[in-house]
Design goal:
Elements (H helix, E strand, L loop, with lengths): L4 H10 L2 E2 L7 H7 L4 E3 L8 H4 L5 E4 L2 H11 L8 H6 L3 E5 L2 E10 L2 E12 L2 E9 L3 H10 L1 E4 L11 E2 L25 E9 L2 E12 L2 E8 L2 E7 L11 E2 L1
Parallel strand pairs: 1-5, 3-7
Antiparallel strand pairs: 2-3, 4-5, 4-8, 5-6, 6-7, 8-9, 10-11, 10-14, 11-12, 12-13
Length: about 240
């Protein structure tokens, strides 16, 4: 998914959210997680059916446990990052029955890369740990070792779904995901148009694949093909003609 840790670093930097501080009190914990539970994904999350976790809730360890761990590494001061990490993650890694939620936040003292660890327990996810990941190399190893599900955050903080071997990604800036169709060639989108040039009809096809660092496009015109990478801000420029 990511070629090296620098590519992962760029992805996390681009998708960092604003730091969210909540005073670590029992009252605030109960407001965030009534009954020690949280619906993991928002109602309008387009990828929830793909992950087969629609309606699931996360069951948490107690506030007392967070405070206990906080005495060692002050993780209780990051309590406000738990909810957005679980509801709007940048990356999710699945390793057997374990899900690792990853999200980055912009803090005045630097970026915070945050992890939440959950075990799959039937219809529930048991949240067993929430903490800061300090070393990018360790985070890269974690992302590389498991099945990676990538959630690309847009400027509106909506999320989309992408995973290895599937074609359900919603890249940054995409406003109408309903027009996407899965290609049998594993491209996320294939567009074809016919135009008249030099007295002849020509066919141009753009085959688009979503990547963490931008979208890769294969342009085929009259049998000749070119491959290049573009930023997602340019995606609509290549959506012309008919979506195959």
């Amino acid at each position: 998914m990511f070629k090296d840790k620098s590519e992962l670093n760029s992805f996390l930097e681009k998708n960092s959210a604003s730091f969210r501080y909540i005073e670590p009190t029992q009252e605030n914990w109960d407001k965030e997680f009534p009954g020690n539970k949280l619906k993991i994904f928002d109602e309008d999350a387009s990828f929830k059916n793909n992950l087969k976790i629609e309606g699931r809730k996360g069951v948490f360890t107690s506030f007392e446990k967070l405070i206990e761990k906080g005495k060692i590494d002050e993780r209780h001061l990051l309590m406000g990052l738990i909810k957005p990490t679980l509801q709007n993650p940048s990356i999710v890694v699945r390793k057997k029955n374990v899900l690792i939620f990853i999200k980055s936040f912009k803090h005045e003292n630097g970026r915070v890369d945050y992890n939440s660890i959950a075990y799959e327990k039937g219809d529930l996810l048991e949240i067993v740990s929430n903490y800061r990941r300090d070393k990018l190399q360790k985070l890269y190893e974690r992302v590389s070792d498991g099945e990676v599900l990538v959630f690309l955050a847009s400027s509106s903080e909506k999320t989309g779904f992408s995973s290895r071997g599937t074609s359900h990604a919603q890249p940054e800036g995409l406003t109408n995901p309903t027009k996407l169709k899965q290609s049998i060639e594993n491209y996320n989108e294939t567009w074809s148009k016919t135009f008249f040039k030099n007295g002849n009809n020509s066919i141009e096809t753009n085959k688009i694949s979503y990547k963490a660092y931008g979208f890769e496009i294969t342009t085929i015109r009259n049998g000749a093909s070119k491959i290049f990478v573009k930023d997602y801000s340019e995606l609509d420029n290549f959506r012309e003609g008919v979506l195959l």
